[in-house]
Design a protein that fits this description.
single chain, about 120 residues, seven-stranded mixed beta sheet, 11 strands, about 0% helix
């Protein structure tokens, strides 16, 4: 099970980025996928997730209305569209795939939002 997170970068406040979480060697179809972030000096926190059963989605309050998680089964990828970025969104973003209570993490991708 290998996950690849990508799409991070440097963006000005108010800008947008789209993160991708792509799987190799297995299908993400039935996995719950979560996006997490870790800011410098802070603990990792959950940002958003999409259910492996019905694709229902959840967001932390701080990103509601700005971030959208979605699944593209044909590309075996889960996206996190981030709009209206704020400096406090800065951090390393990770994706996690969960199935049958087993977790697999991808490496992080750095998002930096300048004020």
């Amino acid at each position: 099970v290998q996950l690849q997170a990508s799409g991070g970068g440097l963006v000005q406040s108010g800008g947008s980025l789209r993160l991708s979480c792509t799987a190799s060697g297995f299908s993400l179809e039935s996995y719950a996928i979560g996006w997490f972030r870790q800011a410098p000096g802070k603990e990792r926190e959950a940002v958003s997730c999409i259910s492996g059963e019905d694709d229902s989605t959840h967001y932390r309050d701080a990103v509601k209305g700005r971030f959208t998680i979605s699944r593209d089964s044909a590309r075996n990828t889960v996206y996190l569209q981030m709009n209206g970025l704020k400096p406090e969104d800065t951090g390393v973003y990770y994706c996690k795939a969960t199935l049958n209570h087993q977790d697999s993490w991808g490496q992080g991708t750095l998002v930096t939002v300048s004020s």
